[in-house]
Amino acid sequence: MTGNAPVYCFTIPSLHDSTVLDCRIYHPASLQDAQIGQQRTRKAALIAHPYAPLGGCMDDPVVMTIVDQLIDLDFVVGTFNFRGAADSQGSTSWAGKAERDDYISVAGHLLFYLNYLHKSDIGPAITRNSQSPAGSVDNTSSDHITLVLGGYSYGSLIVTHLPPTAEILAIFHQTQSSTTVSEILLRAKEIALQTDELMSKQMETRGRLTNQPPRRGHQRQSSSQHSIIYGGSDSPSPADRHSMDLVHKSMEVPARIKHAMHRSHKHSTTSTATSSLTSSDGSTAQSNEVMLDSSPHIFTHYLLISPLLPPISIALSFSTSSLMFWRHTASHTDNLVRNPTLLIYGTEDMFTSSHKMDTWCKKMDALSAQAVGSSGQSSFRWKKVQGAGHFWREHGVEAQLTESLRKWVHEEIAHDYSLHE
């Protein structure tokens, strides 16, 4: 089991129908232990779990193996339970559209959370320049976020049918009057403020200690440490939720959050300038009133572990409407050929034949090369692990899985990340 504990356990409503989803956020060392001169990470990843009716949830061992690796690679990592899984409310849908919207909801929350962390409006910045005068704050942060959207098994099926990141951001703008969107963004700002405050206190405490040697290496967050819980598995029923939310919003949200929201609202009504998150394809989604001023670019990458291909992917849905949904969103595989993508699968996967996966990967590789044209080579990568089954329990295969992931991050993501620093 993972040696990392989530920093935050919380709930947000799904954009699909306000079904309450259980979520977690894990921090890497750069956010767990504030240090002078240490740069806050601008990398985030979201990993989705296997099919809920078959026992899938965010505690899945393969999901947690991926989470551990990404934390160690300096990612802020999000996980969640789809509707009907573990403590999330609702039930698994027949069409898959609801699960796709669940994923979009959590992805939006994670993006805005990371973005809020880098804005001085929510509190004093933690990153300080050691060569600057004592006490000065370095607010010069990179203007981009590196995002990995990933999934294992059924989770990867949902990832392959996500809209482009620009469309995900646009959803939050186009539905800005929605109570659901407001709740998601409020929760993102709420926990960002909590993180900012905790790190500020750490810096102040460390500053008062003399001759304290700097800590080195990755500081794993022990599972014995307490997570901060907002909402959680004891969430009220949908019928009670509205009245409970009114109480929570008046009692839970610190005065600083209310003040920040007031300032953001005042700014939005007195200035013609609009803030935005911008995807790497150049399109933008203007922010709503609870967002802070920002305009980072989002560089999206995709991670697929043991993905499902037809006929098993179709067998997981049973209605005519589901077939129409998957056909309609088939064009979204463009995401995988236009953005850096890693696919890892085993030769002994009981759900998808190795031969079929080989053929599909070669097709995607060719499409990726075609998409970039003469400007470069394909950004679609895949790793076939000999002897690995769908559940990655065979001897030695988990090590190959993690090694492939780390190699991809170092060669593809780290390279792209350094180009935009």
Describe this structure in words.
This protein has 421 residues and is an alpha/beta fold. The chain has one domain: Alpha/Beta hydrolase fold, catalytic domain (Rossmann fold, 3-Layer(aba) Sandwich), CATH 3.40.50.1820. The protein is 41% helix and 15% strand. It contains 13 helices and 11 strands. Strands 1, 2, 3, 4, 5, 6, 7, 8, 9, 10 and 11 form an 11-stranded mixed β-sheet that branches. Helix 2 (61-72) packs parallel to helix 13 (397-419) and helix 3 runs parallel beside helix 6 (179-208). The longest helix has 30 residues, at 179-208. The protein is globular. It starts with 7 loop residues before the first strand and ends with a helix. The relative contact order is 0.15. The model is unreliable at 120-141, 216-220, 233-276 and 282-293 (pLDDT under 50).
